[in-house]
Design a protein that fits this description.
6 helices; 132 residues; elongated; mainly alpha; 0% strand
């Protein structure tokens, strides 16, 4: 389609490397992502413990800090999940589902939206549903 726009002399100079050249040259990269991938065969003779020691020797301050922050993040995620399961959801399992829905709405208006009139209304509705 565009072959008429490129002169014949330039078309002969523009050549893509063949598949054979790509295989022989491990530094040839076809995409930006392949810049981060090591060519085969990869060296896998080093263990995880040895690589951690190597990282610690190369970065004596940042490696322990990174480990600390990763550990803190994992612990905070676990604690948040525990807290949500046992204190937030766990409190509503003692009530039937219609009562729990009204109580959730009442807690929303008493803790988040700060509308005490609606909160009292939903607390009364929860008590009325519980009496039924």
């Amino acid at each position: 389609m565009f072959s008429k726009t490129i002169p014949r002399a330039l078309r002969t100079q523009i050549r893509r490397p063949s598949a054979l050249n790509q295989c022989q040259n491990p530094l040839y990269r076809t995409s930006p992502i392949s810049a981060f991938i090591q060519p085969w065969p990869r060296d896998r003779h080093i263990s995880t413990r040895a690589s951690a020691k190597k990282l610690f020797k190369e970065n004596p301050i940042t490696f322990p800090l990174a480990c600390f922050f990763i550990f803190t993040g994992v612990c905070s995620l676990l604690y948040t999940n525990y807290f949500y399961t046992h204190y937030i959801v766990g409190n509503f399992h003692t009530f039937p589902e219609p009562v729990a829905n009204k109580l959730r709405r009442a807690l929303y208006y008493s803790n988040i939206d700060l509308n005490p009139q609606k909160a009292v209304e939903y607390y009364r509705q929860a008590l009325a549903v519980a009496d039924e």
